Every structure is written in structure tokens, then in C-alpha cells.
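Make up an example, fold above all:
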Amino acid sequence: MKKTLTLLHSNDLHGDFLAEKVDEKLTGGVSMLSGYVSKVRKEEKNVLYAISGDMFKGSLIDQEYRGISTIEIMNLLAPDVVTLGNHEVDYGLAHLLFLEKCAKFPIINANMFLTSNGIRLFNSHRIIEIDGMKIMFIGILTEDVLEYTRNEKLISTLVGIKDAAEEVGRICMAYQTVDIDLTVLLTHIGYENDQKLAAQLDPDWGVDLIIGGHTHTFMEEAEVVNGIPIVQAGTGSGQIGRFDIVYDTLRNKIARWSWRCDPVNENTAPTDPVMEQLLESYKSRTDAKYRRIVTSFARTLTHPSRTQETELGNLYADLLQWESSFDIMLMDSGAIRKKELGPIVEYQDMLENTPFDDVLWMLKVTGAQFKRMVMHILRDEAWEGHTEFYQFSAGVRIVYRRSTRTIEEFRFRGKDITDDQELLIALQNYHYQNFDEFLGIPLADAAKNMKPRVIATSVNNIVEEYFSTHAGLDAHVEGRLVVLE
């Protein structure tokens, strides 16, 4: 006997709640996303909807209410199961546990636990029975993507892919007598790591699908590794992943499957009037507080890729270095969240573009140490999109050739940087706390040059002050970082 199952999935929604006009067409937003899910639930017999992490951060509606608004919105969206992403812990562990209590949907994670006694913080899995089929979802999040929790001494995660694979095996083997029909891993570890994880899974464990997140990977077709389809649905609410599965109940296996990523727009999805009303309630309150103009740009400035020098990257690196006591600002590319900004910039645009506000640290490094840092930033993994990458403030000139892994120019303010030259650099707290990993040299070595110190308590305070005192701002890609293929 054969049965059908439609498995819908999203990942990395990041507070992308409101529809936008794209090519004269309303696209995305959770109202149409909810409409799409509801439409499919009416059209198909057996439908499940899963979210693979990072519901939070990215919009003022989320930030103003520290995720409570997001949980209320997700409750209306009504996923059948959700796994944790790295940004679920941005408001703190205690607050996350509070938010879980507010959720009317199950949140799963197999490998986050209390350091003191090894007790899991969340249920490791969820078994959902639909039309006589038992579908087991297991949530996986490794330490690699949890840098924000490293100061949380009470919690730990299984460290790497090998440990995560073994934990999946233990869970699967523990439920062999339950007659699980399908096993789905909901991961938030990144596309490349999903491939590595799939390769380490024993076929006897019976993992059928991996639905991932974290790297915001847009896919045209599923990647099959070790017989396991791996998928991801980009980022935001403008698209949704869809598996259509035919399951053979006599042979206890998938007879056939197909996967695609469907656009969510006014042509493919109706709006959800209840969701519209909830969104308008939140939007009216945040608009009243945040809809004020803070500056204007000469034109729209762009940030098309986090692994290249960009206009917005240069603007932000420069304004943070403006009238400062340090030489070079290393602005995290990933901290700039919008692809474009301006020419009119409202306060809410400013906050949404740099939602990860924190303190600014200053350190002293030698020219030799700075070169090692740059080489680490530009290592081969950088081009896969899941290492930290930086925008440099004015005066820096770096020319790097990927084919030979060499720096061909290394200059500051028109002069070659010598090994013994001393440079004062600045970076945000998140990067200071993960200095060794992100920048490739021990923080202790840099601290020998000068005791690091906090020079600003809020990056966004500096941004707001600069914006409010400057108008007609412009920035261009100047060749501060040139990467030769």
C-alpha cells in the first residue's frame, strides 16, 4: 500500500515578516507564507510543515519584543516542528527557555545540554503520526554555529559533526522497536556540514532526509549524499521548500520523492487575514516608535555579498573609524543585514541593518600579526560562505591571489605594512570574544602588545550619531580588498 506525504519547510526566516514589492509583485511575508501552507494543507491529504532554525533577529518587530512577537507570529503560522538555530539564543538562554514555554509548537534539539549533569535542554526529537505513518524529526545544532553561547558556562553542545552523527545514531537505534516510517534530520549547521553529516550516517539508522539551515543556501535541486537527500530553502519568507513523497507501507521505504523550492508571492499564495491583523498590530506600534528619518544617502548603497568589499561595508567601517583613536576598523560583513540601504534611511532601517549591537574593542597588533589575520580571513573556506569575513576602513589596500594563496599588496595609507609596524585595530565584542577562531592568532599574543580595552559601549550609538550629523552620504568600492581569481 502506498501513501503520500507533503513535507514543507523553511529556514532562517530572521524576522522576515512583511511582504515586499519585487518586480511589481508582492513577495514573501508570513501572511502569504501562512497562506501557502494553508493552501497546500487543503490541497493535499497529508501535510507537515517544519522550520530549521533562526526564526529570530532581523526585524524590529522581533527585536522590540525580544522574540515574544515572533513566537506569537509562529504560533499562527503553526509549524508542526521547529529546531533551534544559532540566533535563537541571541536574547540569552533563560529568555529562550521562556520563549519555548510561549510556543504552541514543539521545539526540538538533540545536542544542547547542561554542562553540570548532561541533561538536554529540549526534547531531542518529535514523532508525528499522520495517516498511520510515524515521522521522526531530530534537531541538530553543533558548537560551530553557537559562538554567542560560549560565555554561557551552564550549557554545552556536542562539539562536531562526528559527535552529532553518533547522537543521531543513538536516537535512531533507541526507537527501532517503534516502527518509525520516516526519519528526518532538522539541522542548523550549514550546507557543507550537512553533507559531511550525511556521509557519516550509518544506513542502518534509517535517516531518510536532511532539511538544513544556517548558510542561507538557495538550491534548485536536492543534493544526495550517502543516499540521503539534503535540502535548504535559502533565507526569509519569499520561498518555501517542498518534498512530495510516496511511501510504500508494505516495504517500509520511500517509493519515490521529488523536491522543489516554490516562490511565495501574490501569484502562488493567498494572504492570511488573521496573520495580517496580527502583523499590522505589531507594525503600527513599531512604526510609531521607529519611523523617523535619521539621514539620507546620495543614492542607494549596496551590500550584495558578505565575501567582498561593498559600499555599505566601506561606509560602516569608515564611520566607526571616524574621529577614533584606532587605525583600522574590521567591520563584520555578516553584521550588515540588508542588501541595500537608502537613499532615505529611517531609524528602523538603521536598526534592522545592524541588529547585533554590542561594544567595540581596541587592540594593538604588529604588521606580521595583521598579515596572519588577513590570511586567515581569506582562507579557502571563506568562499564557501560560512567563515567570518570583514570590511576594512579607509587606508587599507590588500590584494590577494586565490590561486597561489598569496598577498601581492599589503599597504596602509599608501605605504607597505612592515612586520614590526604597530597598528591599532577595532572590532565588535562578538569577534573579540571569538578572536582566536575568527582571526587566526591567539588573543593572548595581541594582548602582549597592549591591554585590549573597550572604547565604545554601543556600535549603533556611533552609527546613529554619525547619521544624524551627516547627510548625502556616499561610499564606493575602492579596492581596499581585491581578490584575484
In short: The two ends are 54 Å apart (CA to CA).
